[in-house]
Amino acid sequence: MSLVEIDSTIPVSTIMxxxxxxxxxxxxxxxxxxxxxxHRFHHLVVAERGKAQGVISHRDLLKxxxxxxxxxxxxxxxxxxxxxxxxxxxxxxxxxxDPDTPITEVSLMMAANRISxxxxxxxxxxxxxxxxxxxxxxxxxxxxxxxxxEQAEAA
Length: 155
Fold this sequence. Notes:
The protein has a single domain (14-154), classed as CBS-domain, CATH 3.10.580.10. 34% of the residues lie in helices and 17% in strands. It has helices spanning 29-38, 58-64, 76-79, 103-113, 133-144, 146-154, and strands spanning 22-23, 43-48, 51-57, 117-121, 127-132. The longest helix is centred in the C-terminal third of the chain and has 12 residues, at 133-144. The chain is globular, with a radius of gyration of 18 Å.
């Protein structure tokens, strides 16, 4: 087994997703639910006047919805949980990075804070990207097994 050397200067901008979907702190959980159902991601950046204020995850949504929403047992009080606002549920202590932050540093920030995503913000606090634990894991897998990436690119 050989040790692979990782370039610790590669910026997170090389692996971040630039498709950042934002919601307002005043949006309802119904809006959040629709976004999660329509897209294949699990984190939304909460922004007000273009500046990031926090993050809401799919897990946050599920934690605050009644388990009876959308079932035959659904009652009015269950659907009211969809009327909660993002600001009531979101994580406010936002951990973020700029696009030039090395991927290795971003991964340490995520591990130290026990978070699965990190918004990438510009110098004015506006979201320009997002990186998830899955993005970092894919990056590591590409380094350890470049042959898989080459096979995928050839297909």
